Amino acid sequence: MALDVLCMMAHPDDAEILAGGTLIKLKDQGYTVGIVDFTRGEMGTRGDPESREKEAACAAEIMGIDVRRNLRLPDARIENTVENREKVVRAIRELRPRLIITHGMNNRNPDHTHTAMLVRESCFTAGLVKYETGMEPHRPNKLIYCMEYYELTPTFYIDITE
User: Fold this and answer.
1) Is the pLDDT of residue 152 over 80?
2) Do 73 and 106 form a contact (C-beta atoms < 8 A)?
3) Is the Cα torsion angle 66, 71, 75, 81 positive or negative in sign?
4) CA pair distance 119, 123, nearest whole angstrom
5) To 5 degrees, how large is the angle CA 97–CA 125–CA 17?
6) pTM of the predicted protein model
7) I want to staple 21 with a disulfide (CB 3.0 to 4.6 A). Which of 26, 55, 78, 160 is the partner?
């Protein structure tokens, strides 16, 4: 499978909250779009992993998402490790996105920051020919970061008014 766009986020609902309008707009324009959640959101204040999984599947259906996966990393414990980076590399190599959207680097939630770092490093590593996973190398053309908690001047924005 080769996706046009892959949104890689820490928790179920992060993609919807931070990039949902953009993902829907891309789908409406005919692009193939996927979401990879890193955790099941088991440490969240509201809900439990099972209900969050059902909500994520429902949201993906409503948004028209082509594929949604979960890496099942431990919530509130995402770390940029070799083992976790390999899981992200495998997802990138399998889904072969041209563009990846992830969290910004400066967040109050450590899982968001660590996810952004994991994604950035995995995008590079996934393109290394000698990094052996039994899968063809693939490096996305572009990686973009969502603006979250801290105020900053964006380099661009996407109008999702309609």
Assistant:
1) no
2) no
3) negative
4) 6
5) 45
6) 0.95
7) 160
